[in-house]
Amino acid sequence: MKLAELIQYMVHYNNCQVIISTHSPFLLSMEDAKIYDLDMTPVNVCKFNELDSMKKYVDLFQKHFS
């Protein structure tokens, strides 16, 4: 979460562009993130809640916390 905060600060205040390869829901859910789903052919831009990996996180947490 601290890394996500630092990245958001850099982008907003230092006018940086950051390219990251991750499965982290904290980084994928950052505001204004442009996510390229490399599991798709052709590669597709999507929202973090449309990613298969995020759907698996939701299923896992629902199984253990509901």
Q: Main traits of this protein?
A:
3 helices, two-stranded antiparallel ribbon, single chain, 66 residues, 47% helix
Protein topology:
Blueprint lengths: L1 H13 L10 H4 L6 E3 L6 E3 L5 H14 L1
Descriptive overview:
This protein starts with a helix and ends with a helix. The longest helix is centred in the C-terminal third of the chain and has 14 residues, at 52-65. It is mainly alpha-helical and 66 residues long. A two-stranded antiparallel sheet has the order 1-2. The protein has helices at residues 2-14, 25-28, 52-65; strands at 35-37, 44-46.
Helix/strand/pairing category: mainly alpha
Distance between the termini: 24 Å
Radius of gyration over all CA atoms, rounded: 14 Å
Classify the beta-strand content into a percent band: 5-15%
Q: Shape from CA axes? A: flat
Most strands sheet: 2 strands, antiparallel
Quick structural summary:
The protein is mainly α. Helix content is 47%, strand content 9%.
